[in-house]
Write a structure and sequence with these properties.
This protein has twelve helices and 23 strands. With about 525 residues, the chain is of the alpha/beta class. It has a domain of about 260 residues: Glucose Oxidase, domain 3 (2-Layer Sandwich). The strands form six sheets. Strands 1, 2, 3, 10, 11, 12 and 23 form a seven-stranded mixed sheet that branches. The two termini are about 20 Å apart.
Amino acid sequence: MSGDLDAMTCALWGRGAAPQNALGLLFALVNLLVHVPFTDLPVLRDYELGKLRQRYDYVIVGGGSAGCVLANRLSADPTVTVLLLEAGGLETASRQIPGTVGFNLGGHDDWDYRSVPQRHAALSFRQRRLPLPRGKVLGGSSVINFLLYMRGHPHDFDRWQHDYGATGWAYEDVLPHFKDIEDFRAETADGEYHGTTGEVPVDYANTSTRLTRVYLEACNEAGYPYVDYNGPTQQGCSRVQANVAAGSAQVTKVNFKGKRAVGVTFTRYGQPQTVSAKREVILSAGTIGSTQLLLLSGIGPAEDLERLQIPVVADLPVGCGLQDHVNLQMAVPVSTDVEAGIPPFTLDDIQQYDGNRTGTISIPASTELVQFLHTDYATDPDIADIELAPVSTSPASELFRTSLLELGILPEAYDSFLGPKDGQPGFRTVVILNRPKSRGYLSLRSRDPNQHPDIDPRILEHPDDIKAAAQGMLRLACSTHKCTGSSALPAVRRSRNSLLFFWQFTARQLHFTNPARYSGKLYKEQFLPFSAA
């Protein structure tokens, strides 16, 4: 990095109240025992307000994966000045341990969004409001998204260009950029689809359980090939690829001169500050953060903005078309000799990982495999609309139970669907609806940037989503029966109506998209330069 990069963040190591439960105590211990080096990160200067410049070439809002890579690339030019604004701080050590990332959602580096009550799903959550974890930390939501690395399907990128005029966003256009930021470390890397010199480390976990071998054998017998899902095709089964390796400056408004973005207003420790951008303002604050910021800045449905007395810069459907992957989780009892279900982590496991980055704690979110398949409701039979992900966490894991209860799941729902069955060993599995047809929205409650917006993903509102999810669960029942001798859905064999029980455990999958969507036609006619990443 040879350019001038200023980063406004706030390191939060050790801050906050003392841990109140076993979950908090474990992560406090992890933070003490595991020494995660930050030598690979660029040295970021955490400036006091008085030392900030009044103007930068580029102002980047949001220090997630996109924002950090953009800041690094832009500042490589020694003549360029870049300001990266991030509301959160540095991640704690427990966030970098693959095996624990599924247990520590929430906390000071999560925005703690909640959906509005859902009409068609989320019966197992308090007030039928779904938790919507989003990263408030340097690294963004990638820090809390289980370290799994999975690109979008090529068809989706091609459709953006073909259907919506997003020129330059076809898969052949974005693939070089995926490769450019990727440091794929597996020896089997296909150079046509993977890069090895970028900023984002990607590899397979160096430890696997017997479940991996048995499940892969079952998939092969069922006719599902082994694939690189970030390669030429996605349908099939694969070990997961993971983002692993052996600020308190919150923007409140984009400032416009006419319809041209000229800077941003942000607060740090309660003090307002304005900074100008000579070239571009780049929004990379995530699906929710960028959308909320656009609305607060006057870009959105005019009627909604005028109701809140926000001056309208551009009347556009910002906030509409919200999508998210849907997941249904359940426990799978094992009636054969398959050794499934990682037992609770011990101090020895933590010390082993600290010593050589191996052991079951090195498996990201205890997720070893993914399987992609299509249902009868897929828009294209060549494009998978269902993802099955067996998870090695034991149903008897008290740590997992505690973490989900803290997110708002009702105890009786957890015990019914994810708890151990009659004392049998087992594992968990997730059915993910990858191409939902339901669409939701995001809207402002007020002009206060600190008040969370109303977020309604409208999970399972489209009838085809329910049908596809049901078929996915039936496929899961067949797959688990092949590899374990038992079924995740024993009641399904008796009554199709029993599937309705499983809607009670419907959740969302951390993969929001679309309410600040790009349209080439709208961009050219109504926006003047600022960028959304």
